[in-house]
Structure formats: structure tokens, C-alpha cells
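From the shared-data thread, chain only:
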Amino acid sequence: MTIGTKVTFKLEGQDFTGEIAKAYVNSYLITFESTDPEIVDKYHNKVIISQKQFTAVN
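Structure, as C-alpha cells:
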């Protein structure tokens, strides 16, 4: 996957759509937006996800 690819993933039981910002060996830094204040406070709209835990959006 390349930087800028849109992906979907689950975080704390919620579904999110985000964009790959940086690639690592077996994971990616994904930026996303949430309206949940707890999620925003905890993750600051960025999270590192294993490549096995998300799917690309067509």
C-alpha cells in the first residue's frame, strides 16, 4: 500500500476510515477523524495499525 491510500479499520469497537500517512515494516501510521472526544484525546487523530488489521477502500 502507498501513502495516501484510504483504508477502513476498527478502533475500540468503532469503525473508522482513514488515510495512510507513513509506512513501516509491518504496520502503517493512519490519520483519521473522529467526533468522539475520548478517541481524539487518546489518539490525536493518528494511530499505528498492523497491516493485517485494516482493508483498503476502493
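The radius of gyration is 11 Å.
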